[in-house]
Amino acid sequence: MTHKSKWLIFAPLGLATIGAGASMVHWAGSLKDQRQPASKWVAAGTVALVVLNSGLSLFGRSIVEKVLHEVREKPSAE
Question: Domain of life of the organism in this record (predicted)?
């Protein structure tokens, strides 16, 4: 699999996961506002932060793949 194809997979997947995680953080906050039991909103918030951080990791990986594509796979201007 080329660096470009990895970049084209990781970038949208990372962005979608970041969006899902951000929405889940809001949802966990709303559970707290609704005075749900602490165990419920803390668990929801923990899962939300795991999803959000996973999205950041995937997007970061896409940046690495894009740089590797630029350095290794594009023909040089020389």
Answer: Bacteria
Nearest Cα to 17, choosing from 48, 55, 60?
55
Name the residue ranges covered by the structural domains of the chain.
3-73
Q: Which residues contact 68 (CB under 8 A, 6 or more apart)?
A: 3
CB 58 within 8 A of CB 13: yes
Q: Hey, how many other C-beta atoms are within 10 angstroms of the C-beta on 22?
A: 14
10-residue block means of pLDDT along the chain (78 residues)? Answer: 95 98 97 97 97 98 95 73
Report how far apart, in Å, the C-alpha atoms of 11 and of each of 6, 8, 22, 66 are.
8, 6, 17, 9
